[in-house]
Amino acid sequence: MTQIRLYISTLIILLVSIAASAAGKYQLSVSTQTGSDDIEVGEQFYVYMKLDNLDGEPSAPDVPGAVVKYFTLSSQSSSMSSINGKVTRSSSRTYVATCSASKEGSYSIGPFSVDGVSSNKASYTIVKAGSGSLSKLKQRQQQQQQQQSSNRGAYSQDPDDQNQGPKFIGKGNEKLFLKASVSKSTAYEQEALVYTVKLYSSYAPIKFIGATEAPKFDGFVVEESDETSRSLHYETYNGQEYATAIIARYIIFPQMTGKLTIKGNTYTVSTDEQEYYDDPYFRMLTVRRPIQLNVTPNDLVIDVKALPTPQPADFSGGVGQFSISSSLSSNSLKTNQPASIVYEVKGSGNLKYVKLPDLNNIYPKQLEVFSPTTEVNAAAKGSNVSGSIKFDYSFTPLELGQYDIPEVSLVYFDPTTGKYEKSVAKGYLVEVDKGAVSEKSQTKNRLKFIDTLMPVKDLKKERVAYVYTFGYWLFFIIPAIALFVIIIVYRRYLKSAADIVGTRMRKAGKVAAKRLKKAAACMKSGERERFYDEMLIALWGYVSAKLNIPTSELNRENVAQKLSEAGASEESINNLLSVLDDCEFAKYAPGSGEDELKHIYDRGTEVINTLEDSKLTPTK
Questions:
Q1: Cα–Cα distance, 546 to 566 (Å, whole number)
Q2: What is the pLDDT of residue 494?
Q3: Per-residue confidence (pLDDT) for residue 148, from 0 to 100
Q4: Element (H or E) spanning 292, and its range?
Q5: How far is it, in rounded angstroms, from Cα 113 to Cα 109?
Q6: What is the mean pLDDT of residues 296-322?
Q7: Could you tell me if 532 and 583 are in contact, meaning their C-beta atoms sit under 8 angstroms apart?
Q8: H or E element that contains 182
Q9: Which range has highest mean pLDDT (78-82, 187-191, 207-211, 526-530)?
Q10: Separation CA 137–CA 36 (nearest Å)
Q11: Strand, helix or coil for residue 606
Q12: What single DSSP character describes residue 113?
C-alpha cells in the first residue's frame, strides 16, 4: 500500500512539472500602459498583448470604457538554441491596441485566449478630464515655469510647446519619412511609368491622415492607381527596421522630351512621441504626446526621349501594346439608310489618346461616314492603363452597287521593342440595294391617285374640251418643273457629299455642340473626370474638323498657326489654348467644385461660338 502511494505521488509531481513547463513555454499576457497612474477621459492609452511561443493571431480586444483606434503588431522576435543535440525554439510577439478613454470608471480587461492559452487580467481606472495626475503634473510645471524655477525632467520643454494640440514637425525625421521611386528613369515620350510613394516609420502606432497638396507632375498626364498598401509591412532600410506602406501610386505619361522633374507632395502623419519627467512627487513619468509630421518625399528627374523618326504618316499617337478589331452590323445595306461599323482597340498604354485614321479618306466616296461615338473602358491596373476603347461609326450608302470597306490599320509605338508596330482590323464587302422611294415616284403615285378620284362619266364628258385648257397642260408642266428642280438639288447634294473635307468643316460646329451637351450632362451628374474628357474631345474635335488638321498633328503650335492663317483673332486663339490648358490641369487637380466646372463649360462654349462667328476661311 505504501509503495502504491509512492507511485501516485511521483506521478502527480511529474504531471505538475510538465504543466509548469508548458505554462512557461506557452504564455499569453496582457497589460496596459498610460502616461500616469490613472487615465483621463479623452486621453490616449495602450493595451499590450504579448504572445510567447503561440502561432495564433489575436483579434482586436474590446476595451471597456474606451474606443480602440487601431490594433497592430508592434514587435516580434524569435530564437533557436541547440544543447546536447536538443533543439529549442522560442518566439515572442507583441500587439498593441491604441485606445482613447471615453467613460469614467474602474475597468478590467481579459482574460483573452489564443491557441487554448488564456491570459491574465489587467485593471485600469478612467477619471474625469483634468483631474488625473498627468493634468496635475502639467499644471505644476506651468507654475514652476512662471516662477522661473528649473525643471528637473530628463528632457526640458519649450514654453511654446505647452499647447494641448498636436505639434507639427517639418518634413519628418529619421523615425518617419517618405521615399518616392519611379519604374524607369529613362523613358520614351507617352510611355507609361509607375510613380510610387512609400512610407517608412519606426514609431509604434501611426495614423495616416492624407495629402495636403497635389504632386507636381509638370509635363505628364496622370492616372491615379488604387493599388496601395492596406496594411504595414516590415523592411530593413540602411540597417534599421521600419514599418512600411505604399501610400500612393500613379501611372504617368510624359508629354514632352527632355529632363522632367516630379516634385513630391506633402503628406500628414499622426503619431505619439514619448517624453520623460522626473518629479519629486510623482517620480519618473512617461508622457505620450501627439505629434503630426508633414512629410514630403524626394524629387525625381526623368530623362524623356523623343519617339524615333521618321514617324509613320498614319501614326495613331498610341504608345504601348495594342490590337484593333472591327464588327459590321450587316453586309446587306440600302441606299439612304444608315448603317454602323464598330472598331475596338484593346491593350495597355496611353489608350485614351489613341486616334483612328480619317475614314472618309479611305472609304469609298459612295459611303458617307460621320464622326464616331467613343466608349472608353480603361483603368489604371498594375504598371499601366489597360482596357479598351470603342469607335462606333455611322455611315450612309448613297448609290447602288457593291463596295469594299477597306482594312483599317492602327499604327502604334511599342516601347519594349523600340519600334513602330501595326495591327489591322479586317475589311468587308457590302451589297447596297435600293432603299427609300424617291420623290419622283411619289409624285407619279399621287397623280394616279387623283385620276382614280374622277368619275368615269365626268372624265369622258370633259375629255375633249379639257385638252385645250391651261389646266390640262398644267398637269404636265408641274411634274416637269418638279423633276428639273429635284435633279438640280440632287446634283448639288452629290457634289456637296463628295466634298468630304468641306462637309466636315461645315458640320464642325454642330458636332461640337453635341459634345458640349454631353459635357453639360456629366457636370450635372457630378462625373468630374468624364466632364473634362468630353470638353477636351469637343474642343480638339472642333479644331480638327474646322481647320482640316489630322488628329496626329494636333498640338498647340500647329493649331495656333492654322487659326491665325484662317483669320481668327489673337484673342480667340489665346482663349482657346487657355481653356485647353485649364481642362488638362483641372482634370487631375483635386477638389474642383461645380462652380469651376460651370466656369470652364461657359468658357469652352464661348470660344467655339466666337470662332464660328469669325467666318474662318481655312484651307482644305
A1: 10
A2: 76
A3: 35
A4: strand 283-295
A5: 12
A6: 91
A7: yes
A8: strand 176-182
A9: 187-191
A10: 10
A11: helix
A12: E
CA-based R_g, the chain, Å: 40
- Torsion over CA of 25, 30, 33 and 38, rounded to 10 degrees? -140
Place of cell 529613362: 186
Give the residue-averaged pLDDT of 222-231. Answer: 76
| Mean of per-residue pLDDT scores for the chain | 77
C-alpha cell at 441: 415616284
Residue 166 scores a pLDDT above 60: no
If you search the block for the grid coordinates 455611322, which residue do you land on?
394
Instruction: Render pLDDT for 506-559 as a digit per residue (tens, 0 to 9).
Output: 777 788 888 888 888 888 888 888 888 888 888 888 888 878 888 777 788 888
Most confident listed range (84-98, 313-327, 453-467, 475-489): 313-327
Please give the full DSSP string across 469-526, using - where no structure is assigned. SHHHHHHHHHHHHHHHHHHHHHHHHHHHHH-HHHHHHHHHHHHHHHHHHHHHHHHHHT
DSSP labels, 214-253: --B-TTEEEEEE----SS-EEEEETTEEEEEEEEEEEEEE
d(CA 243, CA 175): 10
In one-letter notation, the amino acid at residue 289 is: R
101 forms bridges with which residues in the sheet? 66
| 123-134 residues labelled b (16+ CB within 10 A) or e (exposed) | ebebbeeeebbb
Taking the C-alpha atoms of residue 279 and residue 277, their distance in angstroms, rounded to an integer, is 6
pLDDT value at residue 81: 65
Contacts of residues 169-175 at CB distance under 8 Å and 24 or more positions apart, as own/partner, are 169/291, 169/292, 169/293, 169/294, 170/293, 170/294, 171/293, 171/294, 171/295, 171/296, 172/269, 172/293, 172/294, 172/295, 172/296, 173/293, 175/201, 175/202, 175/203
* Distance, CA of 198 to CA of 243 (rounded, Å): 10
Predicted confidence at residue 142, as pLDDT, reads: 52
Within 8 A by CB and 6+ apart from 266, the residues are: 211, 212, 213, 294, 295, 296
Closest CA to 408 of 365, 368, 360: 360
State if pTM tops 0.70: no
Residue showing cell 521618321: 310
Q: What cell does 567 get?
A: 483669320
Q: Is the pLDDT of residue 279 over 70?
A: no
Q: Which residues are CB-contacts of 114 (< 8 A; sequence separation ≥ 6)?
A: 28, 51, 54, 56, 57, 58
